[in-house]
Structure to design on (944 residues):
């Protein structure tokens, strides 16, 4: 067996150090080593997008990323998106208001993907929102609520709602 | 009684946890010392197992056990799994062993299981288990399976006919003999998988102190699961607790009980440690049940004005290698065919074929989308043949609202005569046509054609039996802390069950919605339960919630009147308090009433009093309630690529009284998305040896955000007279007519080429092929 390696990762603002097998995926590292189970694994081949996290602010498939690849980098998961203490941020509130989630399994990946979008492009069109989330499958909602929530959140964020 | 929540767009109570990563799905259950399982699965569609050598695997680091059929406890070691929905029409009562004994009948069938310290190590060891297979001829296509001399899916069965039955009423021969017009269709349809984003998964833990076996499973039916585990392990149900925690989508395949659930439970008992198995997506493609191929040969006899005289034909259904859920899907299909139309005579001969593929069981719609496709394609053929507008042909044939309740003439899947309880089919179609601006379509089509674009419109109607029995239960219990505990055997895979039941109970009991605590999908919380399938929970659990809340409310009034010293008529209930409407309006809270309801140690209860401020109600519907609706789709076809873009999607939906429009709209929109996948993309392909070849999301295409338009939705509310809320099911109606409407729209878009389609999915490849045959490209080139 290949020797384990020490990694040091900033996860949701806190420095985390661990000794991991080189083949351990980032998704399994987050879920099983750090017990951050909000990141979900839907296909393990990089299509469904449920496992999407932000690595240095950019969306990444945590099922196709090894934990050793994020050594020295900053990872943001669903647990790090909101204001903390179980409160909801603007995008999360919009998701609830527009019924943008049903089973909730794809939701963490949708939120991380859309967080990146709204950072890059505070005023996206509906087509731009749809294009960005083609990398995230949702079987429940038919996407209508997700698209409406993203556009509503973008407007509120532009208008300065914290 | 103040109605505050019923009927309102109440934001879901489930959401805050799910939006912050605090959901608890089965893979989030972690227990110290837990081991991880990986299954050895058949690589063959059909083979004999000569031997299994697990010696090398057992020596691998971190491996605790490799179990084969002989290692399992009795009776599950030798017994086949119980059939969930037996039926006298099933000739081959064939279910699988939990681990295969000497024969495997589909790729992915469970053969052995490795239990190791991590999933990584378990997968390493699975590769080291050597199984010596002797491949047998496999049968892949369900029509070929019924040909004389076809290889049999099981070596000990004489043929592949799992079941054959006939549905009929009226004099169908006379209907055809004198008919001015007859139109025929041969239709092929395919459904694909449920493809919930969360795969299946099981965690089992045996507590030696209490002798309780707890099984967490991503299931739609935990109470059924407990009964199955009890039978297979020979264990008292009282010592088994099955919990469906947060479940990441169901769509049908999670409604049945699987071999893996029993094997993981047995492994936890045998090893004395908690064991987890989480299905990966490849396993889900191989071993989670699907809906698959149906071939219909049908004809319709009509009068000169398009009124239907009769429908007859045959249906072949692929059940796969086993029949765990009986013959429900082809049965439902055969009973759904008449739809919203006056049909004087009907005959359908159904054959169910065994093949060497994973079993088929209901996927959102459960046989209904296929039946609606068959009937609606026939209606379009009538319209085309007689030169009548498709909407008008349908309008001429509708059952009228004043004909309700309407006896179709068949027995439905619930064992009761198929009687539509309520509905207004002409109104639904009219509303959908208005939403779609049907009147303006010819002008849009002409303008598009001028610009070289091909657009079309398609219409489909459906009637869906929902709210099936036998029952669902709800316990409402006021606790001494003033909170209201609600327990139900209904389950939640995203339907918002907690929210809708809370809406019903808070209004009827008179408590704040945030004071309701809900225990869902836990066999320890309520004695009897059924679960989620057949769009049944709003009807069954919703009615039980209303009934239980009203009984508890009456008890609250009785106790409060006594405590406050006023007549019962003077007690009002509001926000968890009982308030006297006289004097200086004294009040008493639910918590204090709950304490009073327990009596005092040693003192007699008041005459007639039952202890506890609680009630459990089990609503048992007398028959199915019939949801209905119309879909109208406008689509554009790119004739160079065969690509289809849905321009608008309009739905008029009648699921009776609506508890929460936010949630019902979401169910409709999501159901439509599933139907779009069925119509245009999703195809589970097997080769001639029954080897699955679409086992990733790169091969099996799911609808994306760019494929699914936001629907225009109108609600027609025809309350059901069959339950106290007037509700009907809403979970599947979005899917059922979608393929029929979309294929009709594509066909209409290509009407300049005279192309007819009678199959799903309608892939770009298939569309280009049809255009090629029609000479479209020759014409374009000349």
């Amino acid at each position: 067996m290949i020797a384990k390696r020490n990694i040091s990762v900033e996860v949701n603002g806190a420095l985390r150090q661990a000794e991991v097998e080189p083949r351990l995926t980032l998704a399994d590292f987050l879920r099983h080593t750090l017990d951050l189970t909000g990141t979900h694994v839907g296909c393990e081949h990089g299509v469904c997008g449920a496992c999407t996290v932000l690595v240095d602010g950019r969306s990444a498939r945590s099922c196709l990323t090894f934990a050793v690849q994020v050594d020295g980098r900053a990872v943001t998961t669903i647990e790090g998106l909101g204001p903390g203490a179980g409160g909801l941020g603007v995008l999360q509130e919009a998701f609830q208001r527009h019924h943008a989630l049903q089973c909730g399994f794809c939701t963490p990946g949708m939120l991380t993907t859309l967080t990146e979008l709204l950072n890059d492009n505070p005023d996206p069109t509906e087509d731009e929102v749809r294009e960005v989330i083609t990398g995230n499958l949702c079987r429940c909602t038919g996407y209508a609520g997700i698209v409406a929530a993203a556009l509503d959140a973008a407007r509120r964020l532009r208008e300065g709602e914290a | 009684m103040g109605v505050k929540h019923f009927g309102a767009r109440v934001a879901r109570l489930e959401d805050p946890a799910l939006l912050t990563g605090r959901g608890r799905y089965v893979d989030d259950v972690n227990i110290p010392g837990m081991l991880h399982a990986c299954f050895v699965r058949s690589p063959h569609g059909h083979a004999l197992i000569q031997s299994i050598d697990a010696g090398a695997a057992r020596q691998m680091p971190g491996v605790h056990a490799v179990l084969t059929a002989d290692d399992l406890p009795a009776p599950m070691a030798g017994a086949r799994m119980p059939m969930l929905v037996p039926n006298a029409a099933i000739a081959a009562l064939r279910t699988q062993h939990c681990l295969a004994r000497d024969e495997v009948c589909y790729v992915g069938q469970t053969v052995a299981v490795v239990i190791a310290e991590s999933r990584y190590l378990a997968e390493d060891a699975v590769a080291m288990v050597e199984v010596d297979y002797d491949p047998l001829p496999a049968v892949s296509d369900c029509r070929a399976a019924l040909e004389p001399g076809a290889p049999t899916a099981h070596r000990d069965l004489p043929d592949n006919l799992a079941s054959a039955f006939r549905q009929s009423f009226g004099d169908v021969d006379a209907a055809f003999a004198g008919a001015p017009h007859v139109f025929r269709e041969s239709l092929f349809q395919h459904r694909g998988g449920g493809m919930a984003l969360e795969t299946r998964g099981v965690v089992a833990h045996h507590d030696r102190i209490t002798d309780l076996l707890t099984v967490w499973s991503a299931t739609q039916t935990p109470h059924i699961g407990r009964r199955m585990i009890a039978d297979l392990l020979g264990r008292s149900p009282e010592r088994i607790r099955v919990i469906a925690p947060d479940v990441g989508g169901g769509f049908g395949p999670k409604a049945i009980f699987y071999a893996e659930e029993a094997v993981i439970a047995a492994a936890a008992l045998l090893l004395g440690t908690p064991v987890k198995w989480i299905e990966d997506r490849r396993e889900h493609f191989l071993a989670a049940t699907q809906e698959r191929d149906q071939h219909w040969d049908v004809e319709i006899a009509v009068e000169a004005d398009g009124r239907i005289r009769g429908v007859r034909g045959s249906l072949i259904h692929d059940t796969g290698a086993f029949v765990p859920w009986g013959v429900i899907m082809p049965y439902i299909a055969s009973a759904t065919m008449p739809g919203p139309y006056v049909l004087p005579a009907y005959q359908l001969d159904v054959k169910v074929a065994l093949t060497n593929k994973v079993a088929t069981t209901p996927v959102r719609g459960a046989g209904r989308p296929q039946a609606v496709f068959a009937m609606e394609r026939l209606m379009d053929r009538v319209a085309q043949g007689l030169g009548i507008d498709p909407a008008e042909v349908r309008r001429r044939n509708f059952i009228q609202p004043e004909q309700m309740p309407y006896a179709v003439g068949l027995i439905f899947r619930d064992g009761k005569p198929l009687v539509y309880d309520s509905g207004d089919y002409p109104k639904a179609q009219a509303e959908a046509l208005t939403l779609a601006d049907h009147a303006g379509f010819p002008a849009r089509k002409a303008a598009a054609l001028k610009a070289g674009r091909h657009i079309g419109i398609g219409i489909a109607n459906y009637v869906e039996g929902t709210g099936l029995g036998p029952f669902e239960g709800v316990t409402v219990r006021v606790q001494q802390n003033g909170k209201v505990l609600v327990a139900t055997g209904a389950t939640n895979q995203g339907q918002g069950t907690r929210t809708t039941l809370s809406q019903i109970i808070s209004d009827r009991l008179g408590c704040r919605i945030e004071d309701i605590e809900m225990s869902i999908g836990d066999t320890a919380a309520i004695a009897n339960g059924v679960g989620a399938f057949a769009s049944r929970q709003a009807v069954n659990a919703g009615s039980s919630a209303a009934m239980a809340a009203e009984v508890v409310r009456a008890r609250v009034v009785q106790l409060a009147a006594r405590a406050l010293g006023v007549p019962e008529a003077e007690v009002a209930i509001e926000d968890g308090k009982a308030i006297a409407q006289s004097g200086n309006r004294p009040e008493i809270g639910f918590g204090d009433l709950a304490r009073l309801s327990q009596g005092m140690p040693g003192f007699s209860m008041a005459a007639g009093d039952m202890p506890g401020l609680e009630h459990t109600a089990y609503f048992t519907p007398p028959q199915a309630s019939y949801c209905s609706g119309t879909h109208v789709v406008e689509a554009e076809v790119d004739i160079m690529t065969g690509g289809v873009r849905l321009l608008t999607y309009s739905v008029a939906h009648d699921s009776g009284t609506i508890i929460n429009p936010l949630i019902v709209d979401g169910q409709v929109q999501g159901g439509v998305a599933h139907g779009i996948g069925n119509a245009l993309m999703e195809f589970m392909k097997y080769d001639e040896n029954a080897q699955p070849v679409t086992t990733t999301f790169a091969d099996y295409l799911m609808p994306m955000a760019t494929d699914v338009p936001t629907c225009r939705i109108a609600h027609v509310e025809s309350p059901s007279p069959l339950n106290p809320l007037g509700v009907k099911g809403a979970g599947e109606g979005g899917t059922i007519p979608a393929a029929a409407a979309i294929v009709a729209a594509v066909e209409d878009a290509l009407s300049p080429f005279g192309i007819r389609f009678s199959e799903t999915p309608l892939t770009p490849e298939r569309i280009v092929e049809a255009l090629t045959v029609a000479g479209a490209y020759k014409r374009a080139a000349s």
